[in-house]
């Protein structure tokens, strides 16, 4: 099969299109023919070696965790999926080696969920990591009807989904973004706030008694978080480990297929939006990585593999 691989840590220049063996289909595993895969910041951070202290790697490595595709084969004792099922996954494994930037990927079925019917292949590929991050943070924080929630980074892939999930739970949502993205945030159901200098005062103007919940998806905003949090409020960050020292939670996403299925069902029930910023063919994966590294794109960057 064709796959994007790298044989050493480095920049996107280390990525190349190569021929690799077809993955084996072990017990409890499904083989997925990849339709589309998403680029996430963690992908190029792994490739650069930044996560080497946390994650083992075996070279040559196929990058990518997020995937949308069709079940091609099922292993022994894998009863939950059948050949032809349309599925998605955040396929993070214990060892970085056989990722989603390939024609096929084999994954434990416990990491797999059914593709939302309402989304395209490209949108579906962009859902797992961003969606699970938003879903698990809001769930851990107990966001419920009547809460006032502040989301740092509302226009990003995670933040935009967190807004929609919080609104669906009945929360009032305040979200930070640049002025250019304020209409977008309003369309998602949030009250937009300009990030940067004076952020604390802007939040307090909208929520004088403070906010019940703060979800940080950007980092570097802990001072503001603590300044606007109401007494007894809850906060969590996926980007700032210092949150733990101040009564908050620092979270690392669990690639749970069960959580992903609950999220996919919510997407279909609530007609959530997943914006796609750019789509690249597999052979141009390095360019997709370069665009993701620049940042400031609104929506997911997707690599297509087997679309008609």
From TrEMBL:
Gene Ontology molecular function, alphabetical: oxidoreductase activity
Q: Which InterPro entries match?
A: ADH-like_N, ER, GroES-like_sf, NAD(P)-bd_dom_sf, YIM1/Zinc_Alcohol_DH_Fams
Pfam families registered for this protein in UniProt: ADH_N (PF08240), ADH_zinc_N_2 (PF13602)
Signal peptide boundaries = none
The source's domain of life comes to: Bacteria
> Would you tell me the protein name for this molecule?
NADP-dependent oxidoreductase
């Amino acid at each position: 099969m064709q796959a994007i691989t790298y044989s050493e840590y480095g920049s996107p220049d280390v990525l190349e299109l190569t021929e690799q063996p077809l993955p084996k289909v072990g017990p409890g595993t499904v083989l997925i023919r990849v339709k589309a895969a998403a680029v996430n910041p963690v992908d190029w951070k792994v490739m650069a070696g930044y996560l080497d202290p946390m994650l083992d790697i075996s070279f040559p490595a196929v990058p990518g965790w997020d995937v949308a595709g069709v079940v091609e084969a099922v292993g022994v004792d894998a009863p939950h999926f059948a050949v032809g099922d349309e599925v998605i996954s955040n396929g993070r494994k214990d060892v970085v080696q056989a990722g989603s930037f390939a024609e096929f990927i084999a994954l434990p079925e416990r990491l797999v969920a059914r593709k939302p019917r309402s989304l395209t292949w490209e949108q579906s590929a962009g859902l797992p990591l961003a969606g699970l991050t938003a879903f698990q943070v809001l769930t851990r924080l107990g966001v419920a009807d009547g809460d006032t929630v502040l989301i740092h980074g509302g226009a990003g892939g995670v933040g935009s989904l967190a807004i929609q999930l919080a609104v669906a739970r009945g929360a009032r949502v305040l979200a930070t973004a640049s002025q250019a993205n304020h209409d977008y945030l309003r369309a998602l159901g949030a009250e937009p706030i300009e990030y940067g200098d004076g952020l604390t005062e802007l939040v307090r103007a909208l929520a004088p008694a403070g906010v019940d919940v703060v979800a940080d998806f950007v980092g570097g905003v802990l001072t503001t978080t603590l300044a606007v949090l109401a007494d007894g409020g809850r906060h969590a960050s996926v980007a700032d480990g210092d949150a733990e020292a101040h009564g908050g939670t620092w979270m690392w996403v669990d690639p749970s297929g069960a959580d992903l299925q609950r999220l996919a069902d919510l997407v279909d029930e609530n007609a959530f939006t997943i914006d796609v910023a750019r789509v690249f063919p597999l052979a141009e994966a390095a360019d997709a990585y370069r665009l993701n590294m620049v940042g400031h794109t609104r929506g997911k960057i997707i690599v297509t593999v087997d679309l008609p």
